Amino acid sequence: MTDSAGGPDLTKGGGGPQDDTPGGGPLVVVENVNKHFGDLHVLRDINLTVQRGEVVVVIGPSGSGKSTLCRSINRLEPIDSGKILIDGRELPKEGKELARLRSDVGMVFQSFNLFAHKTILENVTLGPVKVRKQDKQASEKHAMELLERVGIANQAHKYPAQLSGGQQQRVAIARSLAMKPKVMLFDEPTSALDPEMINEVLDVMTSLAREGMTMIVVTHEMGFARKAAQKVVFMADGQIVESNTPEEFFTNPQTERAQDFLSKILTH
Amino acid sequence: MNELFNFTEVFDNLDKILSGFWATIRLASVTAVLALIIGTVLVSFRVSPTPVLRGVGTVVVNVLRNTPLTLVALLCVSGLSDVLKVTFSDTPSVNGYWWAVTALSVYTGAFVSEALRSGVNTVPLGQAEAARSIGLTFGQSLRMIILPQAFRAVIGPLGSVLIAMIKNTTIVAAVAYGVDAVSEMKIMFFDLGASLPIFIGFAIGYLILTLPAGFFFGWLAKRMAVAR
Ligand SMILES: Nc1ncnc2c1ncn2[C@@H]1O[C@H](COP(=O)(O)OP(=O)(O)OP(=O)(O)O)[C@@H](O)[C@H]1O
Ligand SMILES: [Mg+2]
């Protein structure tokens, strides 16, 4: 059902917003970013660079700021200081311009967050039609291709509540992809899923990665990290403590924090 | 004793009773539309990201909700219309009608807004974030994602608000307009003497308006429920 062979190419589709990008240079730059929630210093001097087509896995203990980092990158959370550049441009503060640029950054949430009163197809076409002002029919055609690609095409006219968690999450991925984003953020996309549904979502993500989508993925799925990621970033207490290739990180963690954390998740 | 249950009076005056209720229906239906619009605007203020709008929404809703409708209507008629000469029309009955509608729809709008706000709270925050992350503006996500689900969640309570509004037409009519079912009843009592059958006839008339409305909203609430 999640077989991805031979689907339409998702990341280099013609007519997308990436056609007018300056090209060259890293796609995401996070520079000296700090963020507080009241007294709590959640992000401490975060620096992170993500190249085009690169897949970065973010890993770390609960409360270390992984979600906050993701949410800052598409400005669901404002930051206190520092800079975040997407394709060389800083996201504007608020308003219409932000809304438009934000759609270049796709986001997939732990809890799927599909629009409950809209069909699967409507969930996927809403952004292209209302934000990108694309033709409705063309959007539906593209949406069906994407749904085909994530294995949900035959459910297009159902409502989210009628689908399993794994199916809903694949729809959420299709909904993000429909905006032809430059980069996709995944915040623990499989941790709300029953074990037997995890792989169907990871398969979709792995093939996305293979097709060259730039991705930042918060996950503890080491298999995915090893298979799909070029870089693993380990966060603890709001800081990036370690950054390495998956192989190096998992077999030979440098810091005590990382060793400690890995020993805990490996025993499970 | 026979007098008490002699309903011929009701049937003899059916045309007057019906025209009274027709006035009530005209008042209530225009008010319902306006109250829903006003309530939607007020709740949009109350959940807006702009602190000033939120403040304005909160103050307006709380003042309206906590002021007796009679006072709101009197303020409109005596204060705005009679003293300040803010009028809708030179024809007194038309002016009275629109001030009655205004008073009742603004007052009811505050209750609609509160009902909708509890509906907004039933929509998971994540859906609003997902809407923002695909690039919808706040207004778009309110209009396309949040309010449609909020409305469906509170159709039952909204029905109660609108039924209360139908009954409240008697108050604004008494203060501002003088034409509705109860006004008609008072005129009939004046002409024919107070009579229990006529009173019962009018009471049943209100039930005929409100009971089906209640059933309708109950049915609609079930039909429109959003599965989660
Ligand atoms: N809206 C908020 N208001 C106040 N504190 C918050 C808020 N969101 C997160 N926090 C706090 O910020 C810290 C970092 O949270 P964050 O969600 O980024 O961690 P995380 O690494 O994603 O954790 P998890 O693995 O549990 O998802 C936590 O201590 C959390 O309690
Ligand atoms: Mg998190």
UniProtKB/TrEMBL annotation, chain A:
One of its GO terms (molecular function) is ATP binding. Its main location: membrane. Residues 28-262 form the ABC transporter domain. Its EC number is 7.4.2.1. PROSITE patterns: ABC_TRANSPORTER_1 (PS00211), ABC_TRANSPORTER_2 (PS50893). It is found in: Cell membrane. Residues 12-26 have a biased composition (Gly residues). It is a peripheral membrane protein. One of its GO terms (cellular component) is plasma membrane. The keyword Cell membrane applies. It catalyses: a polar amino acid(out) + ATP + H2O = a polar amino acid(in) + ADP + phosphate + H(+). Residues 1-11 have a biased composition (Low complexity). The keyword ATP-binding applies. Keywords: Amino-acid transport, ATP-binding, Cell membrane, Hydrolase, Membrane, Nucleotide-binding, Transport. Gene3D superfamilies: P-loop containing nucleotide triphosphate hydrolases. Residues 1-26 are annotated as: Disordered. Belongs to the ABC transporter superfamily. This is ABC-type polar-amino-acid transporter. It comes from Actinomadura namibiensis. The lineage of its organism: Bacteria, Bacillati, Actinomycetota, Actinomycetes, Streptosporangiales.
